Amino acid sequence: MLWLDRLQNRSSQIPVWPDLSLTDCAAKLNESEAGWRAYLEGLSDNVLTAPCNYTNSKGEVWENSVLDVLSHVLLHSAYHRGQIALEVRRSGQTPASTDYIHAVRQGFLL
User: What DSSP line would sit under the chain, residue for residue?
Assistant: First the structure.
C-alpha cells in the first residue's frame, strides 16, 4: 500500500513495517488488492511517463516516473518471495510456488 499511496500522492496509510495480526494482514491484503486494481484499471499510456514525487521512509524527497515505480513494485516483490521461500525451506517445509506462469496456469491471474 505504501507505493500505491505514493503513486496517488497520498500520505501513507500504513507504516513501512507494521505490526499486524494475521486477520489484519488478510484485511490489508484485500484492501491493497482492490486499491491496486482500481489504480491500474484507470491508467493510460501517458500517465506511465508522468512523474511520481514522494518522500521515502528516511525523509528523502524523490521523483521517479510512474512506470519506474510500477517496475520497482513488481521486481521487488520477487525479492521478498525468495526471502519467504528461503525461510519456509529453513523451517523444514516446502514453500508454495510463486512463479507467475504457475499462477496464470492455475487461473489465479486474469
Answer: -HHHHHHTT---SS-SS----HHHHHHHHHHHHHHHHHHHHT--HHHHTSEEEEE-TTS-EEEEEHHHHHHHHHHHHHHHHHHHHHHHHHTTPPPPP--HHHHHHTT---
Q: Could you report the per-residue pLDDT of 49-106, keeping only the tens digit for each?
A: 999 999 988 999 999 999 999 999 999 988 999 999 999 999 999 998 888 888 888 8
Spell out the domain ranges in the chain: 2-105
Which fold would CATH assign to domain 2-105?
A: Four Helix Bundle (Hemerythrin (Met), subunit A) (1.20.120)
Cell of 99: 512463479
The label of the residue with cell 528523502 reads 60
What span, in angstroms and rounded, lies between the C-alpha atoms of 29 and 23?
10
Closest to 13 (Cα-Cα) out of 2, 24, 25: 2
